[in-house]
Amino acid sequence: MTTQSETWPTTESARRPWVDELQQWLTTVDHKRIGILYVLVAILFLVVGGIEASLIRIQLIRAGNDFLGPQTFNQLFTLHGTTMIFFVAMPLMFGFANYLVPLMIGARDMAFPRLNAFSLWLTVSGGFLLYYSLVGGYGLYGAGSAPDVGWFAYAPLTSKTFSPGHSTDYWTLALLVSGFGSIATAINIITTVLCLRCPGMTLGKMPLFVWLSVAMAILAILAIGPLTAAQAMLMIDRYLGGHFFDTQAGGSAVLWMHFFWVFGHPEVYVLVIPAFGIASEVIPVFSRKAIFGYPIMVGASLAIAFISISVWAHHMFTVGMTPAGNTFFVLSTMAIAVPTGIKIFNWLATMWGGRIEFRTPMLFCVAFLFQFLLAGLTGVMLSAAPFNWQLSGSYFVVAHFHYVIVGAILFCAFAAFYYWYPKVTGRMLSETLGKLHFWLFVVGFHLTFDTMHVPGLLGMPRRIYTYETGRGWEGWNAVVTVGAVIQGVAIVIFVINLARAALKGPKAGNDPWDAWTLEWSTTSPPPEYNFATLPVVRSRRPLWDLKHPEDPDWKYE
Amino acid sequence: MTHLAGTLEIEPRTLPSKGKVGMLTLIAAESAIFVIFVIAYLFYAGKSLSGPTTAILRPPIFFTICLLSSSFTVHLAVGALRRGRWAPFVGWWVLTFTLGALFLIGTGLEWKHLIGEGLTIRANLLGTTYYSLVGLHALHVLVGLVLLGAVTVFALLRKVGQAQAEKVDVLSLYWHFVDAVWVVVFTVVYVVGR
């Protein structure tokens, strides 16, 4: 029998000139290179969005600060939000899915490799379009050089009257273009998983990361369509003189809210569901136990995806809906805590009685469990309409969703970096730098985002560029900014670790974590064709079966 | 290292076709876009503050029949290609294209009439929602016609045979979708929305 890690001899052992190398990367249709490019783009925009966040925090460090003007402040929080959601979090998750899904199901590439490359470059173009408005957004009247309408761009602020010039149009185009890319990627992921699984890889034997990528793709397909439609309507209003959101002609500003949030809320789950997938791969390996309750995990994930489509109007309690509408959205929002709670208990049960190894990926996942629980609890608080009436639009909400996006999604993304970096590059990241990154980031995160709840409870509204003294907000805001600085330092250490390990990290070998899914059966980095011979699997942990022929999993599943 | 499954046999299975799954997923995504435009149309029905009303809309019965029958002809065309019968395939395929083109001409005539009546996209909410919804559908018909036309050219060049039946079938799924959306748009605009 052949060995799994066998590679076919390559004819191109000599190093090619860098122009050729660059051309290879820019024209690639290989899912692994596309995945890496997605992640590199995400890191680039993470730095940009992080700098924007730092500027915002410097402005808010003390009362009456004049570091930034109100117009610049509006532009910065719009760019920060749009960048982090569409050009950091989504490319990160799509990058991981692109790289890992074909490897995990024993396929040689995605179902539509060229469409895959097209999606990547649409996303990149979207990001550049957003930032092009800094130079090209001046428009006829010299008004606005970057979008300043907030990331949810409520009407009528986006009308020609209030947003002259072209900066809002660049924002719209950026989201339209990257949205088409995201829809195409989602189509690609679903098709790959349904059509390219290796022999024996039934749906019930797929790694949970693959299942969660499918759930993410389903949600992306259902959620990004409405965003695309709403953006098209906004373009019709702004350029063809339409009246969709023109209140003067009977149009409705509230309709935009519905259309945006029917995308906007599932979008949170588009991002957090792959984070669940990462945790579901990392936690079992470092607990040395198979995942607890696999079928329930799959069911709960699909239930979360399903329920998340019907909760959007909890972003709109303060707008004033009917009592029936309020009640429905309160209950549906609370209901989503049930499958989410099931998942948390399953991860805990996986760790229970396991031989836990606190390597860097596991540390990030453990922190994720705590932080995601807290984020979920403030979510349940905010889901109660009367509580929401008090705190909607305050820093409490800002703290809540950053707890989800940073505390859950970014922490899992870091876990994924430390866990799969050896597979992608063939080299190990430094554990010392990794632990330093982890602890600094945990301290910075909690200083910033635990503290941020308090000024919210004290009534500090979001999106104000400054505030008066004597409201009791100064001290809290200063601590929040200090925390942001510590997080910035941690990110610098992380980037140094990535760059240093790429050059002189110790060799990783095929399977440095003694893991069980198919990506660890091939070389690190994997050859272009992934597997010389397509694997055949009989259980959810094919490499366990291979390493323990006396006690294989398939006897029990 | 041996075979990952050991020596036991794995039962053979057939996975669904990539083209069909990809097209059905695309159709799901497109449906989400159409749903939002349909909701906007229904939400704004009768809420225009001024300008023309739905009384000037004339249901395009003939052109609707054209478009709906093109679903049957494309089905017959794919069936003929599956059996490797080239001439009937080309015949039904060209007929499909013609029916689709007729529909688009019908939309154009209807728009000409409505613009003459003073209903433009900027006239009022009816104009905005009507032209957006019907226009979005017409755009899909146009894309479909381009694809149908491309296949026609390849077919006349004898590049389309039984081996391509699967791919042509995937395209026909898109065409059926365009027809099905028209049933919804027609119902919304000419039945419910009036």
Radius of gyration of chain A: 24 Å
This entry's quaternary arrangement is heterodimer
* Whole-angstrom Rg of chain B: 21 Å
The fourth-level CATH homologous superfamily of chain B is Cytochrome c oxidase, subunit III, four-helix bundle
What percentage of the residues of chain A does DSSP assign to strands (E)?
Answer: under 5%
Question: Percent of residues of chain B in helical segments?
Answer: over 70%
Biggest beta sheet attributes of chain B: none
Q: What is the element layout, followed by pairings?
A:
The complex is a heterodimer of chains A (557) and B (194).
Chain A lengths: L17 H9 L4 H30 L9 H35 L8 H24 L30 H29 L12 H32 L13 H35 L6 H15 L14 H13 L1 H15 L8 H24 L1 H7 L3 H31 L5 H27 L16 H31 L37 H6 L10
Chain B lengths: L17 H27 L16 H22 L3 H31 L8 H32 L8 H28 L2
Helix pairs in contact in B: 1-4, 1-5, 2-3, 2-5, 3-4, 4-5
Q: What this model shows, in words?
A:
The complex is a heterodimer of chains A (557) and B (194). By secondary structure, chain A is an all-alpha fold. Chain A has helices at residues 18-26, 31-60, 70-104, 113-136, 167-195, 208-239, 253-287, 294-308, 323-335, 337-351, 360-383, 385-391, 395-425, 431-457, 474-504, 542-547. Chain B is mainly alpha-helical and 194 residues long. Chain B has a single domain (18-46, 60-192), classed as Four Helix Bundle (Hemerythrin (Met), subunit A), CATH 1.20.120. Chain B has helices at 18-44, 61-82, 86-116, 125-156, 165-192. In chain B, helix 2 (61-82) packs antiparallel against helix 3 (86-116). The longest helix of chain B is centred in the last third of the chain and has 32 residues, at 125-156. The termini of chain B are far apart. The mean pLDDT of chain B is 93.
Task: Report a brief summary of the structure.
The complex is a heterodimer of chains A (557) and B (194). By secondary structure, chain A is mainly alpha-helical.
List keywords for this structure.
heterodimer; A: 557 residues; mainly alpha; Cytochrome C Oxidase, Chain A; 0% strand; B: 194 residues; Four Helix Bundle (Hemerythrin (Met), subunit A); 5 helices
